[in-house]
Amino acid sequence: MKRVVITELLPGMVLAKPVTNTTGLPVVPAGAELDASMIDRLKRLDVPSVYVEGDAGTDAGKTLAELEAELEHRFRRVLQDPLQQGILAALRSHLHRTHGNAANEGTPATS
Amino acid sequence: MSPSAATDFRNRIEQLGDLPALPTVVQKLAAMIGRANVSAEEIGSLIEKDQVLAAKVLRLANSPFYGFPSRIASVPHAVVVLGLNVVKGLTLCATAYDIMKSAGMVPLWRHSLAVAITSQILGKHLDVKNPEEVFVAGLLHDLGKVLLYVKWPEVGAKITAANPLGERPMLDVEQELFSVSHADVGGWLANAWHLPSTLREPILFHHQPGAAQDAPLQTAIVHVADVLVKGIGCGHSGDDLVPPLSRQAWELVGLTDQTLATCLARAADEFLAIDDYL
């Protein structure tokens, strides 16, 4: 999933989250494929950006285990610091939350 | 590098004419801001003479990251609502972006943008007076790297050759080879551009936030944001190592487990849209 500002939307993109109007009512469902007229409609709704299918940046196609290994690798020189351990734990929890694997929640932050 | 060579290095940097592709409009802007009675209209109309630059400044000012509630339609309007320092910073950002993009440093721009977004999120959390300015400080914090690698490719090549796999922090390698870091170079540049200390200190001291005198909070915010962004792994700034965290800065920013989780979630959500601004 990635977030795209309205002006950068292209026909053929598929909504990953429903678009709601200012009162919170869904106006376009998740899974809808955008065409030119729908993009025009979204522009009139005055929403700044929407979520569409597709990966953002370089995380494309990586598994949770790979992402977690990379995360730990980035902290390899600062792990003796309890504050950094706390940040790592928070990032690990975030990774698990966003990759739909809540059963494997990371260890709680120590700071 | 010997002390005299470092001084010589510094002198070269401080010659404004020697800076990479610094548009004349930015040089004129620096001179104009030095005057006491300069108006928003004067500044705005100067920037608007350069249509491309004006468009970029407005694009940044209106980006969703920036989160200004209403649309900013003109540069003078931007000066009034965002303040002179922010507009000046955005002008430099647009310039720095051009340099990074043409030098193939898009990953550094992505990192800078991520630090800017995170700084602003932390700034709003701490209720700082001018979160837009903290955003600009984050965007400019690695400006010294642009200069080191673009203006002095021989310096950049030596640093890269000494650390080909990015296994050591760039900061350590720079200091070992040249007794000068990208933070120092960025600080000199901020001086040469007459940036206020609220922007200069976060650039100069983002690796040693305790040294900040005039803007300790802004400096601490950019320092913590840099650590968090390197942890998240958004963009690339030369190595993939999370830098050491200053306890003093961390305490100044004062995140709890709960607010840290909230700020991280918000930042990661913003990063999903980052490629629209590359």
Explain what the structure shows.
The complex is a heterodimer of chains A (111) and B (278). Helices cover 34% and strands 12% of the residues of chain A. Chain A has helices at residues 36-45, 64-74, 82-98; strands at residues 2-5, 19-20, 26-28, 49-52. In chain A, helix 2 packs antiparallel against helix 3. With 278 residues, chain B is an all-alpha fold. In chain B, helix 9 crosses helix 12 (182-192) and helix 13 crosses helix 14. Chain B has helices spanning 3-14, 24-33, 40-48, 51-61, 75-82, 84-102, 106-125, 131-140, 143-151, 153-162, 170-178, 182-192, 197-204, 216-232, 247-253, 257-271. Chain B contains 16 helices and no strands. Chain A binds chain B through residues 1-5, 8, 48-49, 51, 56-57, 70-71, 73-78, 81, 83-84, 86-88, 90-91, 93-94, 97-98, 108-109, 111, and chain B through 63-64, 110, 169, 227-228, 230-234, 240-245, 247, 250, 257, 260-261, 264-265, 268-276.
Tell me what portion of residues of chain B adopts beta-strand conformation. Answer: under 5%
- Helical region count of chain B? 16
Main sheet of chain B?
none
Rounded to an integer in angstroms, the radius of gyration calculated over CA atoms of chain A is: 18 Å
Sheet with most strands: strand arrangement of chain A: 1-4
| Cα-to-Cα separation, first versus last residue of chain B | 35 Å
Please provide a brief summary of the model.
With 111 residues, chain A is of the alpha+beta class. Chain A has helices at residues 36-45, 64-74, 82-98, and strands at 2-5, 19-20, 26-28, 49-52.
Keywords:
heterodimer, A: 111 residues, alpha+beta, two-stranded antiparallel ribbon, two-stranded antiparallel sheet, 3 helices, 12% strand, disordered C terminus, B: 278 residues, mainly alpha, globular
How does the SSE layout of this entry go?
The complex is a heterodimer of chains A (111) and B (278).
Chain A: E1 2-5, E2 19-20, E3 26-28, H1 36-45, E4 49-52, H2 64-74, H3 82-98
Antiparallel strand pairs in A: 1-4, 2-3
Chain B: H1 3-14, H2 24-33, H3 40-48, H4 51-61, H5 75-82, H6 84-102, H7 106-125, H8 131-140, H9 143-151, H10 153-162, H11 170-178, H12 182-192, H13 197-204, H14 216-232, H15 247-253, H16 257-271
Helix pairs in contact in B: 2-6, 3-5, 4-6, 5-6, 6-8, 7-8, 7-14, 7-16, 8-13, 9-10, 9-12, 12-13, 13-14, 14-15
